[in-house]
Amino acid sequence: MSLFRLLWPGIRRQWRWLLLGVILALLSLVAAAFLLGLSGWFITAGALAGAGLIVGLDIFTPGAGIRLAAVTRTLARYGERLASHEATFRLLADLRQRLFENLLIRDEYSLRQLRRGDALDRLTRDVETLDHMFTGVLGPVVAACVLGLAVAGGFALMGAVPAALAVLVVLVLNLLAMLLIARTGRTPTRQRSAMEPNQRMLATEGLEGMEILKAFNRVNDWSNQLGNHNRHMVELGRMLARLDAVGQGLTTLIGLGGLWSVLVAGIMLTEAGVITTPVMVLLVLVMLALTEAWQPLPGAWRRLAACRVAAERAGELLKPSSSRSATASTQRLPREHSIEAINLSFRYQESLPPLLANLDIFIEAGERVVLIGPSGGGKTTLALLLMGQLAPTTGRVLYGGCNIDRIGPDELRRAIGYLPQRPVVFRDSLANNLRLAAPEASDAELSSVIERVGLDRLMHSLPDGLDSWIGEGGADISGGELRRIALARLLLTDPHVVILDEPTTGLDAASARAMKAGLNGWLGTRTVIMISHDPALLPRYDRSIRIGSDSTRQRPKEG
């Protein structure tokens, strides 16, 4: 996604703050130039008046103008910081909210495509990089360009047309220098920006897998790989720093050339009697202030490439899920809760063979079925297809006789409860982890589902019961306990269809039997799809469907 398209919705909301920031930045630069120029004029006129070359010098009006310019510059600079940062913070907060909202409606498969920590990196570091767009690029460049045109116009009104032309030439040359620096630094900036997430990923994965690296004696290899990556980033950083220095030097050279041009033009105009000596000094000092206004811009403009890379990465989170059909959701949830797959085929990539092919399955409302088969045979993929988290390569999935692509995603999610193979718990209390499914649930209801899934022993062993905290990712509980927390969360909902992916994985036989007994009553007349390698540990079911290598070529046999 382009930088402009990504930021445009926020710009439409915050344009007043952005415009105020640009106006105040321009006012600050104008006040600084006016202060320097008027001070030079006043000092020169005062010296000439002291030498008797000027008679009747008014010291009060220019003195008041100098004070006014000094106060205006200070207040405008402070106000510009407030307005620009307010606009930027609001815009970036709006962008983060849009990105996060889009993540919430993505299907599971598209979320899996994001590398570990990559989504967080895009929400934080990449969005923060866009901070330079207004405070360091757009605002200063617009203000400097407008100031240059204003100074040229002022010089022309004062009769110093050659000086005005010199200002316009400097303006054009500075723009060309900025474009040159931006073009030269585009490739190394993009390379360094692309390497930053890879660096964090490499470091994180190495630290998390340190035990494996040590076991295979590959720590030095990983360390060397990370070191080479860091050295390359440092070298690119040095290259960009040198480029910034060259840009500032080029801007200074152009500014000094313009300063000498204005000085020569001012001397000629003074000798011709067009302007006075104090006005000539004013022209030179205003030109000096204008030169200083351009100093930081080449480096900031070059960093525009980094903003574009960040916008591309962050914008990928706004793309619609590739696995879902673009068909508009027009159908309400049907009253019948049957699930049907018609001629269903699916492959993850065109270069891979189909994982599922030509499947025809019908699960009646209130029926309980078990999907069995070898690991990697497509059972979990089929479950994701049946709940609308994946779009089939060919074929259709019907819910109550209606194509699931026609059903609103929110209604579909409320209708289908899912226990994933790898459930997630958050670093929060046990109660809050459970209330993700039912925010209004009472402590008694939470205790009831905890007992039903066999977690009562864990709860009684915790120091604060329901208010006890669970470590990040469930680090301080076992895998079986984590799954039972996720199952308890599911039991707090009231879905019409329930999909359980390996519900007894990680449980001992006694815990599995306890969970089986607790689930039987809750499942009731719901439509149930279970995935398991050991159906004997599951609650009651009506039939089994085998999914495996043969099912990619023919219909699965029903048992």
Question: Can you describe this structure in just a few lines?
Answer:
It contains 18 helices and 9 strands. The protein is an alpha/beta fold. Helix 2 (60-104) packs antiparallel against helix 4, helix 6 (161-208) packs antiparallel against helix 8 and helix 8 (219-271) packs antiparallel against helix 9.
List the helices and strands and how they pair.
Elements: H1 3-50, H2 60-104, H3 108-112, H4 118-129, H5 132-157, H6 161-208, H7 210-215, H8 219-271, H9 277-294, H10 297-302, H11 304-315, E1 339-346, E2 356-363, E3 368-372, H12 379-386, E4 394-399, E5 402-403, H13 409-415, E6 416-419, H14 430-434, H15 443-452, H16 456-461, H17 479-491, E7 497-501, H18 509-523, E8 527-531, E9 543-546
Parallel strand pairs: 3-8, 3-9, 6-7, 7-8
Antiparallel strand pairs: 1-2, 1-4, 4-5
Structural class: alpha/beta
Spell out the CATH superfamily of the largest domain.
Answer: ABC transporter type 1, transmembrane domain
The fraction of residues assigned to DSSP E strands is 5-15%
The biggest sheet amounts to: 5 strands, parallel
Low-confidence stretches: 551-559
CATH architecture of the largest domain: Up-down Bundle
User: Shape, please?
Assistant: elongated
Query: Rg, please?
Result: 34 Å
How helix-rich are the residues, as a percent range?
Answer: 55-70%
Strand order of the largest sheet: 6-7-8-3-9
The level 1 CATH classification of the largest domain is Mainly Alpha
The number of distinct β-strands equals 9
